[in-house]
Amino acid sequence: MLHIVNKSHAQTRSLESCLRLSRPGQSLLLIEDAVYAATRAAAASSGIAEAATRLKVYALAPDVEARGMAGKLVDGVTAVDYGGFVDLVVEHSTSQSWL
User: What pLDDT does residue 55 have?
Assistant: First the structure.
C-alpha cells in the first residue's frame, strides 16, 4: 500500500494516524506541507525517523524545493520527482490519501 500525506504534522494528526496504522514494508509519500516532517529538524518529533526503519519513505522533490528544504531531508527518506510519484502509484495496487 502507498500512503500519501499532504499536511504538516504540526497542522493535523493525519501523519500520526497514518504512521500508527501503516504496516512494515508499506510505502509513504509526503507531499505539499507534509515534506516538513521529513527534515532533520522535525524527523524525530514527527515520527518519520522511526517510520523510515519500517516503511519506504518518499518526499516529493518539487515540494521539498519549493519550501526551501532541499538538502535537509533525514536519512532514509528518498526524494522523488513527479515521474517518481506516478511510478509509486503504479507500483502499488492500493493507495490511501490521508487528509
Answer: 97
Per-residue burial over 33-63, b if 16 or more Cβ lie within 10 Å, else e, is: bbbbbbbeebbeebbbbebbeebbbbbbbeb
Predicted TM-score (pTM) of the model is 0.96
Q: Are 88 and 49 in contact (CB under 8 A)?
A: no
* Residue 74 to residue 87: CA distance in whole angstroms: 22
Phi/psi of residue 3, nearest 5 degrees: -95, 135
- The domain segmentation of the chain, as residue ranges, is 2-98
Fold of 2-98: Hypothetical Protein Ychn; Chain: A, (3.40.1260)
